Amino acid sequence: MKKEQYLGVSVSPYTYEEIIEDLKERIAAGSQSTVIAVNPEKVITAGRDPLVKELINNSTYQIADGIGMIIASKLKRGQLRERVTGVDMMGRLLQFAADEGHSVFFYGAKEYVVRTAKEKLEASIPNLRVAGYANGYVKDQDALVQQIRESGAALLFVALGSPRQELWIKDNMANLPNVKVFQGVGGSFDVYSGKVKRAPAAYRKLGLEWLYRLMKEPKRIKRQTALPKFLLKVLLKK
Fold first, then answer.
1. What are the φ/ψ torsions at residue 155 (nearest 5 degrees)?
2. Is 188 within a domain?
3. Residue 39's closest CA among 216, 212, 189, 209?
4. Residue 215, pLDDT score
5. pLDDT at 211
6. Does 93 map to a domain?
7. How far is it, in rounded angstroms, from Cα 73 to Cα 70?
8. Please, which residues bridge with residue 158 across strands?
9. Is the dihedral of CA 116, 119, 122, 124 positive or negative?
10. How many CB atoms lie within 10 A of CB 99?
11. How many CA atoms lie within 13 A of 122 on its CB side?
12. CB 130, CB 192: distance < 8 Å
């Protein structure tokens, strides 16, 4: 699979539909796949932390979650055509699972959040089969892995925050041969449970979801400085 590189971090220049089609082939072949969201903040972090860079670059799909990735691609005449956000990728994968008859498992977040997300998603996606769920405070990890394995789920969504969720996936993939698709989904359960409201569609369409979140949470301003730092580094890199 052809990837683009930004400051040494790989990004997959594929749309939602192209990823789903590729996943169909990989699942049919019995391969396991991982999905990780990449944004400017995460690229800057990867520049300081070799482990984060390794986790990103070793993933099957590094989705361009963040308008900064699209801007960088345009500056470098790359092939990134659209944002592929983590929360929307999860939604597409859930619909894919329902259409193809695959069951899913949710792991992470607070009990109320993950349970409510499960209930709302089951109600909104016909034929979706949630084989099980567990909150992010499980102590007995061996029992959790056994629960996921026995559930028979083919897709697993892990919400522990990054890079913890990616580390968990890396450490447990081999013990979950039935799971064919792993996605670290950060705060997506918060969104699907209704606890956190997404930016209005107009903001999302214009790639200004970051601005909406900044207006709602001004304390995020420090995190948002990663965008200009990232773009400047991309421009200066030969």
1. -125, 135
2. yes
3. 209
4. 74
5. 64
6. no
7. 5
8. 107, 184
9. negative
10. 13
11. 15
12. no
Instruction: Read off the tokens for 157.
Output: 């969504």
Q: Are 123 and 135 in contact (CB under 8 A)?
A: no
Residue 206 lies in a domain: yes
Provide the 8-state DSSP code for 207: T
On whether residue 181 sits in a domain, the answer given is yes
Separation of alpha carbons 65 and 41, rounded Å: 10
Q: Which of 12, 68, 14 is nearest to 41 (CA)?
A: 68
User: pTM score > 0.85 for this model?
Assistant: yes
* Closest to 61 (Cα-Cα) out of 93, 104, 30: 93
The reply to whether 7 and 24 lie within a common domain is yes
Is the Cβ–Cβ distance between 189 and 112 less than 8 Å? no
pLDDT at 58: 96
- In which residue ranges of the chain is pLDDT below 50? none
Residue entry with tokens 């029992």: 143
Long-range contacts of 151-154 (CB under 8 A, 24+ apart): 151/103, 151/105, 152/103, 152/178, 153/102, 153/103, 153/104, 153/105, 153/178, 153/179, 154/27, 154/97, 154/102, 154/103, 154/104, 154/178, 154/179, 154/180, 154/181
Tell me the CB-side half-sphere exposure of residue 23, using CA atoms within 13 A.
Answer: 27
Provide the 3-class DSSP secondary structure of residue 31: coil
- Quick one: 52 and 109 in the same domain? no
How far does CA 45 lie from the centroid of its chain?
16
